[in-house]
Amino acid sequence: MTRRPFAYLTLTVLAVYALGPMLVFVLASLKTPSEISENPLGLPGEFRWENFATAWADANMGAGLVNSAIIAVSTAAGVCVISGCAAYALGRLDLPKPGLFILYLLVASSLPIQLFLVPLLSLWTKLGLYDSRFGLIVIYWAIYSPFATLLIRSFLLAVPREYEAAARLDGAGELRLFIRIVFPLIWPGVLTAGLIAGLQAYNEFLLAVTFIQDSESLPVSLSLYSFQQGFSPDWALVSAAGLIMVLPPLALFLALQRRFVEGYTSSGMSG
What we know:
The chain has one domain (about 65-235, about 240-265): MetI-like (MetI-like fold). With about 270 residues, the protein is mainly α. It has helices at about 5-30, 35-40, 50-60, 60-90, 100-110, 115-125, 135-155, 160-170, 175-205, 205-210, 220-230, 235-265. It starts with a helix and ends in a 5-residue tail after the last helix. It contains 12 helices and no strands.
């Protein structure tokens, strides 16, 4: 009991530390540029809600959000399929030296993507995948699937093999076994892996700015960057555009946070 006030104080300080910059960010989006320069931490004299409409139009945020949604959803779906099948193979099939595959996944998930930018750029140009959303999505599949495979495999190891043995006695093949028996038992892990991959793809900048040049295919992160760099920045409008970018993944996470946290912690990979 004596430690509880200290715990509450610590949590309050951490909450202020985490939410304070976000509050300043929101207030800046409702100010005029002169108010930001004169008093960046203060309240706006008048809430300028029209900043959001102006930023939406000037930064082309609508097209950026659509492109980011396509990229994020496609990345999440592809990662779930690839990593789900790979995790099932690692956890259930009789592979030679499965430890080597796990080591490979650990190494692959730890290497920085910057090491491969130049060869990837050359290869993607030859394959005709440069400056296309599909080409970017394929790269995201490759870099996000190793961790997702390890995550889903940790769920799979907790599933008793007796369920699969009974299904095999009934004549179920591996594909039917995975879809009808295993997947319903590990879907929290698949959902968690998909959410992580989708959010990473939504927020990713380096690969997007390298492999996407067409203005009609820019994800929202590049739309915001172009808007900020295009002229002398109006920080009120830049803040409004940034808040527009933040709101969709924030709403998604708040809606699915319980399943996300439960899935991540129950996997055994949270430490």
